[in-house]
């Protein structure tokens, strides 16, 4: 059974760990957000892509969902000593993690499309699942904030890392997405999938950029799409999803998640403790309860199994 996931860099990778245990890995494809890609000094950073690669290669640092577990930071600390503006890194890049970023940068600078480089990397890391960036074009997620009465348009990292998410969010944009094309192999993986799963990811800054690409949205139109909620009750399980949903006019609850995905979702998977029977009212797709807080491998495998069980019911 072929499954394609749409992913950001924290929630869906957790589900991916479980799915990998219950589905043959060659049958899994992951289409990943690149709206947060950026340059740091001379390095190209594709944070969600790298997290998905490290997750599938069993190398991910699960404390941060960023970088390689057990990594060292000698280069980062040494660069700090040199105090060169051009090298100043607003986030800590580990040594082994840096090697993958250098690899990406090297080939991108020589004109390779990101999708080709990521495919090389997945093979180098012995990953059997397919991993595709959503696009080879530059689509950038921008956050409009208000600071001291002024409106400022920020890159995602300027908002989330440099300002630690502490600014009033007014809106979120996916710059350039109207001109961007979906990666061809990603589109084919969606067309060939028996099931598309939108894992528990931030709808606005992880999945929104992917859906903002017209041909990806179109490819999803007649597919069976399951969405796992990143919201339980009236809060995001982690991170700033709630703030972004509010800024875009969606209530921070299951109804907001449904509203965001209503064009494409067939089955919405919500937390068992989220009053499932009551929530079914007012939601026009199928609503299924499951344990969706993924603390350990057992939770992840159980959710993956639950998704497959639900798929086979129809
Ligand atoms: P990002 O790129 O780091 O923003 O990562 P994602 O968008 O993939 O994941 C972040 C979202 O995943 C947040 O909105 C969280 O609420 C959600 N999330 C994180 N862990 C879990 C979990 O264990 N269960 C569920 N249901 N959602 C989670």
TrEMBL record:
UniProt cofactor(s): Mg(2+)
Reaction catalysed?
Answer: (2S)-lactyl-2-diphospho-5'-guanosine + 7,8-didemethyl-8-hydroxy-5-deazariboflavin = oxidized coenzyme F420-0 + GMP + H(+)
> What would be an example GO MF term here?
LPPG:FO 2-phospho-L-lactate transferase activity
Q: Please give the pathway this protein is involved in.
A: Cofactor biosynthesis; coenzyme F420 biosynthesis
Going by the entry's taxonomy, the superkingdom of the source organism is recorded as Archaea
**Which residues does the annotation say bind 7,8-didemethyl-8-hydroxy-5-deazariboflavin?**
50, 92
Family annotation (InterPro entries): CofD, CofD-like_dom_sf, FbiA/CofD
UniProt KW keywords: Magnesium, Transferase
Q: Does the keyword Signal apply?
A: no
List, in alphabetical order, the GO biological process terms annotated in this UniProt record.
F420-0 metabolic process
Protein EC: 2.7.8.28
Q: Which NCBIfam families match?
A: F420_cofD
- Similarity annotation: Belongs to the CofD family.
What does the record give as the function of this protein? Catalyzes the transfer of the 2-phospholactate moiety from (2S)-lactyl-2-diphospho-5'-guanosine to 7,8-didemethyl-8-hydroxy-5-deazariboflavin (FO) with the formation of oxidized coenzyme F420-0 and GMP.
Q: How does it assemble?
A: Homodimer.
Protein name according to UniProt = 2-phospho-L-lactate transferase
To which species is this protein native? Methanothermococcus okinawensis
Q: List the gene name.
A: cofD
